[in-house]
Amino acid sequence: xFPYLTMVQKPxxxxxxxNFLRNKKIIDQGNDIVYRYTGxxxxxxxxxxxxxxxxxxxxxxxxxxxxxxxxxxxxxxxxPYKFRKIDYWTRDxxxxxxxxxxxxxx
Length: 106
What we know:
This protein has one domain. The protein has four helices and no strands. The chain is an all-alpha fold. The chain is globular, with a radius of gyration of 13 Å.
């Protein structure tokens, strides 16, 4: 569900994603080289990054509590926010992952 929310550019989605960013549970990725899911806040951060203009960049591979807080605090410095014109085919690594989840997963 999360990746598809990037297509709905409405304030209600932003509020929902802010609630998920508050979730402090981070799944330990361990030393495995395979990229894994790291929690609801991580998915929310990717949605927000894809939707909002100049949203905070964060680590894709080492998303932790500090990264989560950095993403959450972005709203304090950037109010009001602006929606970005989404280009799913950009080479941006975060948006590329969202594109993968929307267009390539079946």
